[in-house]
Sequence to fold (429 residues):
Amino acid sequence: MVQLKVEPSKLSGEVTAPPSKSYTHRAFMIAALAQGESKIVNPLLSLDTEATIEAVRALGAKVVQEGRIWRVNGTGGELKPRVDVIDTKNSGTTIRLMSAIAALSPKPIRLTGDQSILKRPMGQLIEALEKLGAKARCEGKGGRPPVVVGGGLSGGSVEITGSVSSQFISALLIASPYARENVELTITEELRSKPYIEITLELLDAVGANIKRNRDLTEFKIRGSQTFRALDMTIPGDFSSAAFVLGAAALTGSNVKVNNLDIRGAQGDRRIIKFLEEFGADVKTRGKIVEVSATGELSGIEADCGDNPDLVPVLAVLGSVASGRTRLLNIPHLRFKETDRIRALAVELRKMGAEVEERPDELKLKGVKHLRGTRLSSHGDHRMAMAFAVAGLAARGETIVDGAESIPVSYPGFVGDMRKLGAKLELVK
Fold:
């Protein structure tokens, strides 16, 4: 286990946001189904996205790296699997989206992953794939992985909930154009994490997919027997990862700039700008640069995070010291991430002296004047590890975060970037 030792620190300077994990996953998957050679510039190379790249290769696409440019020779939907089993490691996005893509395989493919992945809900996606004609089943109890899929999609009508994971919907949107007949997809219950669906649709539009949808993104009509044209795109910077750096500046009363952030793009986590302003930080944007200046004196906020679950860890850290009360609402889907993030945040922040109330679908925090340094667990979750590292920057005394080896899942350069800004961080193996 790798530990991250954190000392109280002030930050100053500028860093570049890493490429978007969400765009990288989807770009490689869609390119794998496209006809011809796709070009993907500056993708994120992390443990999660590398799992996707290997899965894409396993299903028959050819992937070649030329510096910052990656070329993918797609399958045109005619998958030719090289293996019977795909290991998705710790990547929930990989197992969910690739399960739908692998369902197009003429032979069965088994998808599995680490212990965290084997706890992820998959049943509703697998049932939807079955209804669309695939041979699909969960081998784990209660609709959990491993999953086995294959046989192709025939088409038809299917409903799926929007309350558990937007990844189920993205998976069906990517694979359904390759069904033999048309597909009608209806989303039931509340659609959470809607911006991730918008990212999926942005990339599908770029390759010419014929997908009609209503304004609420709850009804889709997808023409069958399509073939995507090749994709050509540069991956934008990742607001989800940059939020930890920007939040650290607000927490420590520092001045920090993060570049490579497109504030007009589809990423829902650009709302970190609005949230930081509500906490009381001064946020300026210029081109693709976001600058945060703060005195360290923050005030509590109330935020509906239904569309922004990945911002909750850093928002909870800020709320733990912001004066007054902070409520992070509409987040039951956080219980189905790498860990139960609602529980993990409550348990670990309390160790630092924070006043946290855990509810089924929200976190309530009452700000304390000072957090205290202590030993914390990441619960094997990259976003927990980074959030607790940020908390340690404003705590009294040393903070030790166990399980820091999870950080490269989404932001391999996190420790280096933070140290560049003056953070006193040390990885210890």
Q: What stands out?
A: The chain has two domains: 3-18+237-428, 21-234.
